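Quick entry between incubations.
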Amino acid sequence: MNESTRFARSIRFLADRFPMEKLNFQSMVAKKDVPVHRMSWAYYLGGLVLFFFGIQLMTGIALLFYYQPSVSDAHASVEYLTRNVAGGALIRNIHAWSSSGMIFTLLIHLLTTFAMKAFARPRELTWVSGVLLLMLTFAFGFTGYLLPWHQIAVNATKVGLQSIEQLGEFLPGALSEIPTKIRVAIQGEAAVGQATLSRFFAAHVVLLPLATFAVLGLHLFQVQIHGMSPGVDKPTTRSERFFPFFVLKDFRVWGVVMFVLATIALCIPFEAFFDYPLFEPYDALGSTPDGIKPEWYFLFLYYPLELLPFWLVNLIVMLAVGVLLMAPVIFRGTSRRVLSTIAILVAAYLVVSTVFGQEIYEMIKGGH
Amino acid sequence: MRSLKPLAVIALVLALPSAATAYPEFQKYSQERSGRGVNCAMCHAHADGPDGVKAGQVGSLDAEGIARLNAARIAFEPGQKVDSPILNRFGDAIIEGVGKNAVLSMRATPAGLGDAMRLSDLDGDGISDGDEYDEGTHPLDPNHGDPWKLFVVNLSRHRLDLLLLALATALGLYGLGHILTWFGHAAEAALGRGKSPKE
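Done. Structure below.
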């Protein structure tokens, strides 16, 4: 393939993904239809993730008014906010529950999108940007976990950062130094301390939101310009107008979810599920309390790391990320039936490792 | 001779200001019964217990603190005001409620402490301190308790708020629905489609 052919193909690729002729109100709103079929419910998941992101943004800004990002004051500021500020506990609970809701919905959105083959041409960029948003969301979870500076926060972060360094053991020569350098760059100093907290805070409230806005912008633009994917093998004849009917249903779903979220946040403090010693201020000289674990959305990774060789888990993770990003190419000719089976198997693994991970771990390792 | 016995006990207690004064039987019971991680902070001022030199531990006390500690240590009978520098409010409430003698005798049957504190709810979360002790949750933290019990209690407490929220959500969606539908019709008309949008 010569230069000009390659250039022409690149231009054609971009023209297909960014069809400027559709960049108008008629195409993107007025004439946009949404297919109606048995999987139509999945079309609401992306909007729901967006809704949770909006909640995170608003409650996060409210939390910023009181949070102090220093190792001496972080825990006390969170305690003050929770106990003394009117509505503080509710805002914090909504932020915590909504983060879980966002990741849960995002995972289902990813799996249904995969099963519906919504990554097929010309929606490859929608898919890739979606995978990047998933990674950014996990990064939000990881960085946000440290901010309250309590026992579970700091110790879980230490474990996470140590995992990065361990990678060096499996790399040859000078490459083996790179994970340590990455860890030090993230950590900012020899041990998890003020520099780490500052970096995680900056990442959580500035860098990651900016990156998310950029990728989300591309994602939504792609969704809007290409419309909803057909989603099923047999083309459906039924459809509904995107505006106002689908948008209105989207808002109804958001309204119901907002009510459920507010009820849960008002009635069940998220800390109630954990042992209280885990929420005491971090003491660098004290012993690590029992029960240090990552948040539920990292358990699918945590238990394999505890049970299988480190290099094997990392190899699987890298392969999985590669497959996710390259899915539009790898699964180009795969039927929706096969894709659905893969999605169901992945979902089953996520549920089993998250819900029954501890039991499986104890069964294999024996005892507690 | 009989009258000298309590004095001898008091003298012995006061003579040992730095001796181990935590009773791990209660922590062990709470932890085993609940399956949750429990530490000394359930009753003590410091999570590592009373022994040591950190704030809230015996070694850090000044003269005034020692005096308060000694006063708490001789509160053998229930009903006496206790303000121990090494205990938290729950620890003080236990000594005030049942007396030091009963606490000492309950070391053999730590389940009794839960029964003794069944009517107290220091954090006001709707779960009694006795239940929190049995369930390994913190009796002084209203955000910590059995999740299901907290849900039931808070649902009842906030039922009016939730009713208003449900009403506001329903009305908001009703209004929004009308605005969007009107806008859809107006857009249709402006674009000259000639008929109303149908679902």
